[in-house]
Design a protein that fits this description.
binds N-oxalylglycine; 14 strands; alpha+beta; Jelly Rolls; metal ion binding; 4-stranded antiparallel sheet; 336 residues; binds nickel (II) ion; IPNS-like_FE2OG_OXY
Length: 336
């Protein structure tokens, strides 16, 4: 728990969550699965350690991310997000909780997905396609670093996917097929928070939301900010901070896994509050193949527990959720 301000640590009202920690190098698979399952039933948030991504490389990814956000806005607007949701998202572009937010989120971002070349038969599908890249003369090594990180994070996601399958009483390789994680949408997003928040005025670093996909692997720079709300119906809602642990991912389940599991596994509401300090984070959103039909898993239904959600294609669901939360691209025309 580094980088916490004195005020935060002295604030008696600040609730801190304690989450289960899954060690991917632990030989005791049964124990890992039990601990993971408990976390998924309770709040869908847990730490993952010993995932095999080395800390120096992680620091390099954060350094490169900072370099990008430090560029003049004009330079960043050259790689404004395209229709495939890749590229730069300016401050206030996204609004995750319109009921409680007056403007959008006080953060800027950069979406990076798997590079799908023009001659690929899937090129025309939403979310597949090319990434815009900053000019390599301006940011040398940037693209290589991000592409390597994407590959590594995807490998870790597949490892976690095997434990999740076991926790759902499925075959360990259940999510490893082509329709699932074989050709996934999987999008990483560099984020830079300005540090601004004032909930009483409807100003949030990142509004309350649940993630859309299967799971999210979150790496942060250690600056406090992420909060979770285990019971969204409680009045008033109780928010708990999730502290960063150096070298660990904070992993949370998304809405697709909640749907797959018939509500058995939780996709929990979360948000980010700024504390005046700038903050950098990198969520890696794991969504399955574009064509994947997200429908109740065979182990999560019975005669007395019928499917609660209709089956929906991954890309249809994601398109809908992105539309609800992102500004129309046309608003940027005058600024480019
Ligand atoms: C998100 C998110 C948390 C963070 O981008 O979906 O919840 O700490 N981010 O940046
Ligand atoms: Ni989120």
């Amino acid at each position: 728990m580094e980088n916490h301000t004195k005020e935060e640590l002295q604030d008696p009202t600040m609730q801190v969550s304690s989450l289960n920690c899954i060690d991917l190098a632990n030989d005791d698979l049964h124990r890992s699965v039990v601990s993971l399952k408990q976390a998924c039933l309770d709040c869908g948030f847990f730490y993952v350690i010993n995932h095999g991504i080395n800390e120096e490389f992680m620091d390099d990814v954060f350094d490169q991310s900072k370099k990008f956000f430090a560029l003049p806005l004009e330079e960043k607007m050259k790689v404004l997000r395209n229709g495939k949701h890749r590229g730069y998202t300016p401050v206030l572009d996204e609004i995750l909780d319109p009921e409680n937010q007056v403007n959008g989120d006080h953060k800027e971002g950069y979406y990076i997905g798997i590079e799908v070349p023009k001659d690929d038969p899937d090129y025309d599908k939403p979310f597949y396609g090319p990434n815009p890249w900053p000019d390599s003369d301006v940011l040398p090594r940037w693209r290589e670093t991000m592409e390597k990180y994407h590959q590594e994070a995807l490998r870790v996601s597949k490892d976690i996917g095997r434990l999740l399958a076991l926790a759902l009483d499925l075959d360990a390789n259940y999510f490893d097929t082509w329709e699932m994680l074989g050709k996934p949408i999987a999008t990483m997003r560099l984020l830079h928070y300005e540090g601004v928040s004032d909930p009483s005025k409807g100003i949030y670093a990142c509004g309350a939301h649940t993630d859309y996909g299967m799971m999210t692997l979150l790496a942060t720079d250690g600056v406090m900010g992420l909060q979770i709300c285990k019971d969204k119906n409680a009045k008033p809602q109780k928010w708990e901070y999730v502290p960063a642990i150096k070298g660990a991912y904070i992993v949370n389940l998304g809405d697709m896994l909640e749907r797959w599991s018939n509500g058995f596994f939780k996709s929990t509401l979360h948000r980010v509050l700024g504390n005046g300090q700038e903050r950098y984070s990198i969520p890696f959103f794991v969504e399955p193949n574009h064509e994947c039909l997200v429908e109740c898993l065979p182990t999560c239904k019975s005669e007395s527990n019928v499917p609660k959600y209709p089956a929906i294609k991954c890309s249809t669901y994601l398109t809908q959720r992105y539309k609800e939360t992102h500004a129309e691209l046309s608003i940027y025309n005058q600024e480019i």
